[in-house]
User: Fold this.
Amino acid sequence: MTRHTSVALAALTLSLLTVHSALAQQSREDMIVRQATGVLNEVMAIPASGIPHSMLAKAEGVVVIPNMIKGGFVIGVRHGRGVVMIRDENRAWQPPQFVTMTGGSVGWQAGIQATDVVLVFMTRNSVQGLLTGKFTIGVDAAAAAGPVGRNASAGTDLSLKSEIYSYSRSRGLFVGASVDGSSLQIDPAANRNYYASTGLTPTGQQATNTPVLPASAAELLTTLTKYSDNMRVEPQQVGAYEAPQQTVQPAPTVVQHGSISVDQLRMELAAASNRLGSMLDDQWKAYLGLPKQIYEQGPHPNPQILQACIARYDQVAGNANYAQLTQRPDFQHVHGLLITYTDALSAMAAENGAINLPPPPVQAAAQP
Assistant:
């Protein structure tokens, strides 16, 4: 093999790895959008316990955070990724933008649970606050637990004394809708990944004459429009999105309070992984298996090693051939917990001034 051939093959390999990484990232964002659609449908399926349609009709923005992690005993931690949809001047819903939500809460909290969070923004000021920087609920805008039910507005003050109404749907012991002190932030990197090949800018603005809205985004907008009793917006018209000027903020840091939060995250991840593994054959157990440190007490695994696990889950999630697996809540729960746990470990290491390195190179045995 000539030197030129080797260089060409190396360049091709690097190109393929870059494309694969981009597709894996896009599949992660696509999964978040599809999960957000599922949350809306499930929350609104029973009118007696859903968000009032009248409230959604008046809303200026809606945030959906699927599978937000809350955990810890005595002191808890929240972290999640989701999307925000905002109305334009014609009150049409615009393409989703990605957000992160982080924050701590104080009080007795029995374990870690995956909780779906929905925030209904009732004022333009609160929406603008989110778009222009890091936004703290309860500080930058007043928030309150939202009413539920078709006729809830009759007995609830909806004169916008609160700018944000919050809802949560817990899948375990942890329940409640208090989100004061949590911070929301636009996620520019996720926006770029999701809209990279659509003819739209990273915030969903029209960048070409023929923008193509991702199918998952079109489905989410159609779903939100249906429940907000707003004028129906055809997906192909949604691409012309005039977003307000944004200041790109650095990625948020997971709020940590000692080692309890990451220890509890590890316990929940181990339990969820075991539940998923009970449904799989040996080949899939090996492929989706996690480092042994997940299943035992002691030091936590290196976040870089966990990134390789996330990449495998991303690859499976992005392949339609595995839909029977990836559409199961068990797979989605492990996938989401794995990402959150890795982020928490990375944030904790950064706070302690530690650096994350892969294992040292294997050295040859010393010669006698």
